[in-house]
Amino acid sequence: MTTETLCARRPMRLANLTAITLHRHLHRRGDAWWLQFGAGETKERRAFEMPWPPILTPLLEQYLGAWRPCLLRTKSDALWISNRGRPMTEQAIYC
Predict the structure, then answer these.
(1) In terms of Cα–Cα distance, which of 57, 5, 70 is closest to 28?
(2) What is the mean pLDDT of residues 21-32?
(3) Rounded distance, CA 51 to CA 35, Å?
(4) Which of 77, 91, 70 is nearest to 26 (CA)?
(5) DSSP per residue over 31-49, as a string?
(6) Under a CB-based contact definition with an 8 Å cutoff, are residues 72 and 84 in contact?
(7) At a CB cut-off of 8 Å and minimum separation 6, what does 56 contact?
(8) What is the overall mean pLDDT for the chain?
(9) pTM (2 d.p.)
(10) What is the pLDDT of residue 59?
(11) Residue 8 in 3-state DSSP?
(12) Which is nearest to 57 in space by CA: 29, 77, 17?
């Protein structure tokens, strides 16, 4: 799964994409995953909520279940983990 695929289906600012954390921004509701940002976390100061694209759900679950734990070398709730085992920065996601 690439961040480009996610952004193509659910457009958002790079800062919000980078800031996604488990249980704060990414929540499971039944069989679906949801993204949620508070008003203070968006450029326009409006709350933002949308479902994770269903077509990407199997890839998200594979990433969360297998790849993210393998990458993670420090305690973090960040969704995106770099190959160095730490949360990805905006620059790393952009590249």
Answers:
(1) 57
(2) 96
(3) 6
(4) 77
(5) TEEEEEE-GGGSTTS--EE
(6) no
(7) 1, 5, 6, 9
(8) 90
(9) 0.84
(10) 94
(11) helix
(12) 29
CB 9 within 8 A of CB 56: yes
For 48, the token pair is 């933002």
Per the CB < 8 A criterion, the answer to whether 20 and 29 are in contact is no
User: What percent of the chain is predicted at pLDDT more than 70?
Assistant: 89
Question: What is the pLDDT at residue 12?
Answer: 81
State yes or no: pLDDT of 1 exceeds 60. Answer: no
3-class DSSP assignment, residue 78: strand
Place of tokens 């160095």: 84
20 is written with which tokens?
A: 């996604």
Of 44 and 82, the structure prediction assigns the larger pLDDT to 82
Structure tokens at 9: 């289906």
